[in-house]
Model the fold of this input.
Amino acid sequence: MKSGSPLLLLLPVMILAATALPACKKVDRSDYIADGVSKLLATYRFETVSDVKYNLTFKIDEGKDSPVEGTAVIEFSLGAGREPLVIDFRVPEDNLRTVSVNGRSAAAALTNGHIIVDRRLLSRRYNRVEIGFRAGDLSLNRNDEYLYTLFVPDRASTAFPCFDQPDIKGRFTLALDIPAGYRAMSNNPIVSADTADSRVMLRFSETRPISTYLFAFAAGKFELVEKEVEGVKMEMLHRETRAGYLDNNAEEIFRLHYSALKWLEEYTQIPYPFDKFGFVLLPPFQYSGMEHPGSIFYRFSSLILEASPTLNERLSRASLIAHETSHIWFGDLVTMKWFDDVWLKEVFAGYMSDKIAGPDFPDVNHDLKFLLSRYPAAYDVDRTRGTNPVIQELGNMKDAGSLYGGIIYNKAPIVMRQLEQITGEENLMKGLQVYLKKYSWGNARWDDLVSILEESSGKPLSEWSRMWIKEAGMPVITPVISETDGFRISFREDDPAGTIRHWPQTLRTMVITANDTVTADLEPAERDSYITTAERPLCIIPDISGRAYGTFLFDSLTAKYLAEHLPDIQDPLLKGILWINMYENLVNGVIRPADFHATASRDLQVITDLQLRNYLSGRFSAVWWNWLSAEERAARAVETEAILRGKMASAENPAEKRSWFGTLSSLTVTQSGLDYLASLWKSGTLPGGTLQGGNIQGGARPGENLPGPVRLSEDELCTLALTLALKGYTGADRIIADQRKRIENKERLERFDFVTPAVSADAAVRDAFFESLRDPANREREPWVLEALGYLHHPMVAERSEKYILPSLEMLEEIKSTGDIFFPERWISATLEGHRSAEARATVEKFLDDNPDYPADLKLKILQAADHLFR
Ligand SMILES: [Zn+2]
Done:
């Protein structure tokens, strides 16, 4: 799965202890049948249930309102044990119609989302449970003309009765009773289609053993395209109706799938293991893609690109297809045993997709891309008290959503590159081949892979794994300079948690003196690992490889040197490394915000690499608002605005012009600056000497150089109007009212109206808006809520919004239960990010003190989001 944008669970110790119970012993009944799938239930069930087959039928009508009726026949073997059999089915009680066990009717009742079957009805060997039900709609994603399932991580049981845990794999046989105008796709091929009375009964062949979260189907008004590339048959369902778009993209989509599949067959030495290869393009989809074997689901816009796509768009598409195709082996064929290892399938899909898609794009600096996309996001979590290890404790499947976050998406890929460095690329490949072969069609844990890799590489890995995968946090690494017979430079390693831990890694260190530059590999905290120089070091760069990980603090000479010379450095990767380090040094109080701003301001004017410029612009804005005081901003505003205006006016490429405009409108605080922004809003265009056309964000497009000014898009104009209102610009009310009238897109207008109260100058309007968020229905459009919270808590108006912090914290538990898996983290981050006051800090501390039994996963999210308040 790929989020397309972005956790944790600490479990009561008793559950962990209980998992060791042998199957025949009595278990704690309240955990066993608790809501969700507890680790206790999962462990017991894994030991006793096997050879599972599901025979499922769903009857689907047109539209999204009439219920989906279904039947399930579950066949399985049962081992010894005393506990009743638990089948998961998380629906309202009425949805369960009939239950029969081995031909005898049983009670159709639900307890905590489970059907509990009396042991006496079951046989020690073969069993057959038949269930009549109405499917819950939660994960059927119903629309007027189609529906699709999305069961990851534990939502299969909201649609049909099953054993909803990844290590009980089942063979699924599906039948779909659908309207005659509908098409459908599932994991396996269709074997028969019987039409009668304007209905079609589609039957699919039995799948190979797959986990419940990987079972999937989509049905509705779709078009089917079939294609064979060098013997590989592929099928695609889509709803594209615009002329030309499909022709422009289909060929490439099939080619990318074909080449990813062939690459993986070669790398893994395992031929494509499932019965067919297909994909469905869904107009709105929660993620960029989801790797159901035989039927990968994609967000439509991730694969169907606009005319003349940018390099980045093409690279993202190729990477996404490679990522999801890699999951066929890493995740589908070999699956994690429990969701605490969900990071493992993600990290290998990412690792493979870099290898598969990267070489097709030689013009992209992939090392820089990796650095800028992973390190800052990993550090943002890992430097906080709320950080978590890559492998997190998970006591119940219902909390699996909290596992996803910055650490598994960003730190895990970083440490995987370390692993490759230790084992060597070849040995890693060989180890992975053994692993995939040994655990095919089954489940494995991270530790299973570690032992195989130790064997294939001949390198001990358990200590590395313990520190980088199982422990939370990162080292703080500081240079130590001693002056004896020249200068000797080594590194001290500190553990921010206050204990003594050592993270094994090698740094490629560079030391610059007045007349010399020395480079060497150093191990932090190793007594005999140092560099000597004859002259005093002017600048010590702890690591120039872009592979080391930690907080690298500068000594005072280096801080001074970089503040002066960073803009002179040409190499993009080194510049990226240093800017990331600069920011960490700012957060840790080594670099003053004013110095960061001054150096970044100079460097932004000379950086030509777009990846670097985008990264630095983002940090530049963040430092402006979150680290500089209002006085410091005021002192620098005239010059900063003039620089950004100049860059915007002279940028030749529309995408660059837009990017400068975005930074300018975010930073502007002077009256004349706001007047200027208001004039841009009025004209709806950006100035410039060159005539350029197009209004598509994200980069230059060939053929876009048509005469005409750069027009601001509807989104940009809305944001500009809201920004002017937020900043208290005189006449903003009028601008907001006029902007409303300008908006043509209906959804954009709804969003604009939703967000507008958050920038109101009237406290009563803002209060009423915040109160409205208590109703879950008003939080359904999560991106709208986050946009509004960003304005509500903007640093410029943070003081007036402090009163919303406590209620926002109090709502967090409910938000977890009603929102998407990423929403609690984003809600609390958007709330706290703009605040810096002692009062805000006290509010968070008091909340945590007053709630000693607060859920551990959410507590960590709060600590992550509040980190800047504690510094
Ligand atoms: Zn994935």
In short: The first strand starts at residue 49 and ends at 59. The CA atoms of residues 802 and 840 lie 6 Å apart.
